[in-house]
Amino acid sequence: MNRKKARDIILDITERLSPFCIKIEPVGSWRRGKEELHDIDFICLESSTRKIFGQPKEQLRYQIERLGDCLSSGGKSIRIIYRDEQIDFYITRDTKAYSVLKLIRTGSAEFNRKLCGIAKKKGMKLKADGGGLINPETKLQIAWDEEEILKKLLGHVPKPEERE
After folding, report:
1. CA-to-CA distance for 89 and 20, rounded, in angstroms?
2. Which architecture, in CATH terms, is 97-162?
3. Where are the alpha helices (DSSP H) in 39-140?
4. Could you tell me the residue ranges of all domains in the chain?
5. Looking at the DSSP assignment, which residues form a beta bridge with residue 55?
6. CATH 3.30.460.10 fits 3-93, yes or no
7. Sign of dihedral through CA atoms 37, 75, 145, 16?
8. Which pLDDT value is given to residue 54?
9. Does residue 131 carry a pLDDT above 80?
10. Could you tell me how far CA 155 lies from the centroid of its own chain?
11. Burial class of 130 by CB neighbour count within 10 A (0 to 12, 13 to 18, 19+)
């Protein structure tokens, strides 16, 4: 789909789901500024301790699944077809994991492989599930913020559109 159609879908979905999220953002090829998109990826931060605008936190999953034809729903992700386009949602209740998801789900896949390779060479591991940058021997987190991870691995923070 082109960026105009993607923008319309993003605005509509964000408006519909904002009451059920603490935070919701489009990532993936949209965030990298691509003109043509295969799908749209969203990351969503849901509350684990309170209702969101008076709605139970489970409402987020329910509302996402109601948006369109649900292709898969389980774990931390949901895939739907909305206005004939594939939309993927990645959901977390952890603010630290949200930042890691933002990095990983922005991609690109090749950029993520590069980051994982650099982490391995430096004796670290990048956990795409939201765990962040860890020391595999001690299992201690070294970094869990998008900028912090990029600085530790690359020495700088490339803009999303530079992550190919």
Report:
1. 13
2. 2-Layer Sandwich (3.30)
3. 59-67, 95-106, 109-121
4. 3-93, 97-162
5. 52
6. yes
7. positive
8. 56
9. yes
10. 23
11. buried
